[in-house]
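#lab-general

N.A. 3:47 PM
ok so I finally got the sequence cleaned up, no stray characters, all 355 residues accounted for. can someone with queue access submit it? mine expired

B.Y. 3:52 PM
send it over

N.A. 3:53 PM
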Amino acid sequence: MQDWIPLALLAALLACSCAVTSCARSTDPVPKQPDAGSASSDAIDKSNLRARLTAEQYEVTQENGTERPFRNAYWDNHAPGIYVDVVSGEPLFSSLDKFDSGTGWPSFTRPLKSDAVVEKRDVTLGMLRVEVRSKRADSHLGHVFDDGPEPTGLRYCMNSASLRFVPADQLVKEGYGEFAPLFGQQAASSNPVATETAVLAGGCFWGMEDLLRKIPGVLETEVGYTGGTLENPTYEDTHDSKSGHAEAVRIVFDPAKLTYADLLEHWFFRMHDPTTLNRQGNDRGTQYRSAIFFADAEQKRIAEEVIRKVDASGKWKKPIVTTLEPAAKFWPAEDYHQDYLVKNPRGYTCHFLRD
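B.Y. 4:20 PM
back already:
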C-alpha cells in the first residue's frame, strides 16, 4: 500500500485484510528467507526494465508499490489460464485457484507450485504482514493473508501490474505446455522447438510483414510500434513522428532453420532500402526509419558484423543508415494492421526482395 491511499480506504483495507495481530501466517509467523544458494534474481537482466515495463509495472515490481484497487487489469478476470511474472515470465498462479475476494485485487488461494514464490516478513505500515515475491526475478507481487477460503484458508492478494496473463489456449505456444493438462489440453511436446525473436523496422510494417512471414524458419510475425517515448501508442500517435516510435515487426523464428545473421543479411537488407534516412518509398518520417532492435549483446554483435559486410559488398551505392537500438517495449499495432496484405491483397506496399 502506498502513500496515495486515503485514510478511510486504508482503514477499510486493513479491516478486510485481517487483524494486525494475525496478518502473518499463524503457522509460520516469521516466514523463512530463501537460502543463500536459492534462486532469486539470477540470470535476470534488469538493466533495461524501465524501457521494458510500464511506469506502474516498474513501481510495483521494483519499488514495492501497490496499484489502485478495482482499477487494474486482472481483478475481475475470469478467463482460464495462468499468471506469470511480468519481469521474468516465471509461472506463479492459476485461474483455477483465483477467487473474488472483494478487495479489488486479483486473489488466489495458493501459488501454482509450492516453491513458485518467496514469502518475507513485512513490518511496514506499523503492522506485521507477509510479503510475496517471485522466486527467480525477486519481483514484489503483493501480500498473503490467512482469511481466504478453503481449501487453504489463504488469500494471496496480488498486484495485476506484477503479472502477465497467459490464456489456457496459448500455454503450449508460449512455452508453458506443462500446465496445459490443468485445463484439459494436451501437454507440450517433449522436444519443443527452440525459438529466437527479432524486432526489425524498415518502413511500412505491412510490406515488411508480408515478406517476412514467408521466410522458411519464421514461425510467427506481429506488427507494432517500438523505440519511442509514449506508452500504449496508437497509429495516430506514431504518425508524423510524434511519438518517436518506429513501425516494426516482431519475428519469432527457429534458429535451427534460420539464423539471426541470415535473417538480416539475406532478407532484411534485401526487402527495404537501408540507405534512405527516415524514408521508404513515399513514406517519410522517423516512424519509417531502418532499424534493428537488438535483444542482447550477441544480437548487437551479429548485426554490426552484417552491416559491415553488406556495406562493403557494394550492393548499395550509398552508405547504410540503419540504426542499432536496444530492444524496448513492443506495442502491438491495432488489429486491422495485423496481416494487412493477407486481408487486403491489393493493399499498398513499397517492399520487394532485391537480387
